[in-house]
Amino acid sequence: MTASIRAFADNTADPKVSGLLHLPDTPNGNALVLTHGAGSNAQAPLLRALADAFCAAGFTVLRCDLPYRQARSFGPPGPGDAARDRAGLKNAIAAISRVMSEDGGAPRLADFARPGNSEVDPPLSRSLRQGGDSEKNEAVPLNTPLVGPALSDPEQSEGKSNGWESKVFLAGHSYGGRQASILCAELSEKEPDLVSGLLLLSYPLHPPRRPEQQRTQHLPDLRTPALFVHGTRDPFGSIAEIEQALKMIPARTKLLAVEGAGHDLGFKGKATREELPPLVLEEMQKLEVRMQK
Questions:
Q1: The pTM of the whole model exceeds 0.90
Q2: What is the Cα–Cα distance from 246 to 250, expressed in whole angstroms?
Q3: Do residues 266 and 272 make contact, with C-beta atoms less than 8 angstroms apart?
Q4: Dihedral of CA 228/232/235/240: which sign?
Q5: What torsion, rounded to 10 degrees, do the Cα atoms 126, 264, 201, 178 define?
Q6: Strand ranges for 66-219 from DSSP E
Q7: What angle do CA 220, 168, 135 make, to 5 degrees?
Q8: Measuring CA to CA, which residue among 214, 207, 195, 199 is closest to residue 253?
Q9: Residue 55: what are its φ and ψ, rounded to 5°?
């Protein structure tokens, strides 16, 4: 389990960054920004399970609400939301980089705690308890919310301090993963090292029953190593179709097929696949090792 889970907000950014920050007992110097699909939010059971698994391995994890979800507590994104959602993801990367730069990759909790370091703080806001999370009434342990501009030092925006350089990974389910991959493709020329690796959960290759509407236009420009996690029964793309799409990507990729899973990867209602988060973590770690060779 994580050392603590704290409400997080950077209100100095536009779009704002809002979500939950998982702080590990023993930081490994790396961070993960994790976001949700079109009908969900940062409280989705899949995101929470993955955040716990990565945090237990030493990652500082920010699971965040995309700007469209911050603006509306339920419903899908609108046609004009995508560019702003990508901007929000970029701001989330900058925010987590500043957190990591506080102490050479290990966030200093004392800097963020209020006097007395209370163990119990206000409950989650209504907006974080809606949007497709069937477990929205479950209490989540929170300590002091982290709020900008305390984390807005521009000189440390690259996640570096005293020679330390943290790696930031970006992950998203469905729509969130698609926007994450488009963002990395857009950054491939000017900021290719901003994201060290992608985790794309149930990439929505095409709308259900419309395989001709491929969402692959940006893939030839994607130069960020990526792990795709996809169910064998996902109506947004078959395993064979995903394998063909991966051939368009010049970066290193890996496909983890989840047998029998649909678009929710087995996390629907109270149902979970407890074996999946550790497996995803293991495959991401393998991908990182291969990136270093």
A1: no
A2: 9
A3: yes
A4: positive
A5: -70
A6: 146-147, 160-161, 164-165, 167-173, 197-201
A7: 100
A8: 199
A9: -65, -40
* Residue partners of 60: CB distance under 8 A and separation at least 6: 21, 22, 23, 24, 27, 30, 31, 32, 96, 99, 100, 107
Name the residue range of residue 135's domain.
4-292
Q: Which residues contact 289 (CB under 8 A, 6 or more apart)?
A: none
Structure tokens, 130: 């809606």
Task: Determine the 3-state secondary structure of 46 from DSSP.
Answer: helix
Kindly give the residue spans of alpha helices, DSSP state H, lying in the chain.
Answer: 45-56, 67-71, 82-100, 109-112, 175-186, 239-246, 276-292
Between the alpha carbon of residue 1 and those of residues 51, 54, 56, 57, 127, the distances in Å are 10, 10, 6, 10, 25
In 3-state terms, what secondary structure has residue 289? helix
Q: How many domains does the chain have?
A: 1
Output the domain CATH number for residue 255. 3.40.50.1820
Strands 226-231, 197-201: pairing is parallel
Per-residue pLDDT of the chain in tens (293 residues, 90 and over written 9): 446 999 999 999 999 999 999 999 999 999 999 999 999 999 999 999 999 999 999 999 999 999 999 999 999 999 899 999 999 999 999 999 999 886 555 554 433 333 233 232 333 333 322 233 333 323 333 333 444 433 333 333 344 433 336 799 999 999 999 999 999 999 999 999 999 999 999 999 999 999 999 999 999 999 999 999 999 999 999 999 999 999 999 999 999 999 999 999 999 877 788 899 999 999 999 887 676 66
Q: How far is CA 130 from the centre of its chain?
A: 18
pLDDT at 272 (0 to 100):
85
